[in-house]
Specification:
Helix content is 49%, strand content 8%. It has seven helices and seven strands; from the N terminus they run ααβββββββααααα.
Length: 233
C-alpha cells in the first residue's frame, strides 16, 4: 500500500516563513529571495483568508470590470467597483460601497468560471482582503487596511521583483537592499494581520498557532534588525 504525502495551505505558509527565517540566518543573505518568499507568503495567506468554506471567492476568472454587488445581513444591497490608485499602474482597489436598488437578478458571487482550477490573481486578492463583502465571513471577521503607499510597494514587489525572479532570464539583477527589506516587512506585517487579526484564518491546533505566531514575529524582528544595521552602516 502506497503512503501518501499531504500538505495544506497553512503548512505552505509556515514553510515560506521558515525559508525566510533560514535566509535571514545566513551570512550571505539573499534579500531577493526573502522578498520573493514574502510575496508568496502574503499571496497564500490572502487566499486562505478569502476562500471561505468552498473556495468560491478565490477560484474562477473575475469579470474585467470587477463590479461586485452584495448583501450582508439585513442591510440593503451595496455595490463596489474597481478604481485606480494614485501612483499605481497595475495594483487597484475597490471603491467605497454605495447603496443601490435591489437588482432584478442577483448573483452574490459575480465570478465567471469554466474551471475551478483557476486561482484569482495577486492584485485581485490584494483588493478583496480590504473590503467587507469578501472578508466578513464570521461574526468577528474584518477586512485589513492597506495604504496607498503600501499598495505601491506591493506593485513594485510583484512587477519588478517577483515577476523577474519567477521568470528568470540569466542576467544580472539588482535592487536596493533597503527596499527589498522594507517591502518584505510590509508583506509580513499584512500576512500577520490576515492570519491573526482578520478572523478568517483557522489554525485548529493551539500549539501550532502559537508556533506560527512566534515564527512570523521572529522573522519580522530579524527584518527590523536588518533594517537598523543598514541604517547604522
Amino acid at each position: 500500500m502506497k503512503t501518501l504525502d499531504t500538505i495544506d495551505n497553512i503548512s505552505l505558509i509556515e514553510n515560506c516563513l521558515s525559508h525566510i527565517g533560514y535566509e535571514l540566518s545566513k551570512s550571505d543573505t539573499s534579500y531577493f529571495r526573502i522578498a520573493r518568499e514574502s510575496h508568496l507568503c502574503l499571496y497564500r495567506t490572502m487566499i486562505e483568508a478569502l476562500k471561505g468554506t468552498a473556495n468560491m471567492a478565490v477560484t474562477g476568472k473575475p469579470s474585467k470590470k470587477r463590479v461586485q454587488i452584495y448583501l450582508i445581513g439585513d442591510d440593503r444591497f451595496k455595490e463596489i467597483h474597481k478604481i485606480k490608485i494614485n501612483g499605481c499602474k497595475w495594483a487597484w482597489r475597490f471603491s467605497e460601497p454605495v447603496y443601490i436598488e435591489t437588482p432584478p437578478a442577483f448573483d452574490q458571487v459575480n465570478i465567471k468560471t469554466d474551471s475551478e482550477d483557476y486561482l484569482i490573481p495577486f492584485y485581485d486578492a490584494l483588493a478583496m482582503v480590504q473590503v467587507e463583502c469578501f472578508m466578513m465571513q464570521n461574526i468577528h471577521s474584518k477586512p485589513i487596511q492597506i495604504s496607498d503607499h503600501e499598495m505601491r510597494l506591493m506593485e513594485w514587489l510583484h512587477e519588478a521583483i517577483r515577476n523577474e525572479y519567477e521568470h528568470f532570464v540569466p542576467r544580472l539583477y539588482a535592487a536596493p537592499i533597503e527596499s527589498l527589506i522594507n517591502v518584505s516587512f510590509v508583506c509580513l506585517k499584512l500576512t500577520k494581520d490576515l492570519l491573526f487579526g482578520s478572523g478568517n484564518v483557522w489554525i485548529f491546533e493551539e500549539e501550532r498557532e502559537k508556533a506560527i505566531l512566534q515564527l512570523i514575529d521572529s522573522v519580522i524582528e530579524n527584518l527590523i534588525a536588518a533594517m537598523n544595521r543598514r541604517k547604522v552602516s
